[in-house]
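Worked problem 6 (solution included).
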Amino acid sequence: MKKTLLAILFVTASLSLKTAMAQTLVTENYIIEIKNNCTEGVVVCDDITYIGTSKTSGNHIELSGQTHHVMCADGVTPCRFLGYIFENGNVTYFVDQAGAIKVTQNETVLVEETGEWVY
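Solution. The predicted structure is:
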C-alpha cells in the first residue's frame, strides 16, 4: 500500500512539472493565449504555443515559438526576459512582457497593439 501511494505521488509530482503554464493577452482586436510547455523553472524555452483569435472575425492561428531574452555580456547567459517570438513563413509575431503585440512581414508592420495580461 505504501509503495503504491508513493508511486502515485511521484507520478503526480512529475506530471505537474511538465504542465503547460498559460497566460492570456487581451488587446482591442485580439485575444492571444501563450502557453509555456517547458518544465517549470526553465528560463530559455523553445516550446511556446501562441493561439491568437480575432475578436471581429473569430479566425484564429496557432503557432510554435520561443522565449526571447537580452543576453548578458558573455553572449550566452540570458539576462533579461523580453517576451516571445513566433514565425509563420516570413511573418514574425512578437509578444512582449509588457502586453504589446507586433506582427511584421519582412520589415512592414502589419499589427501593433497593446493590451492587458489576464492570468
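Discussion: Strands lie at 21-26, 30-36, 48-54, 60-71, 78-88, 91-96, 100-105, 108-114, 116-118.
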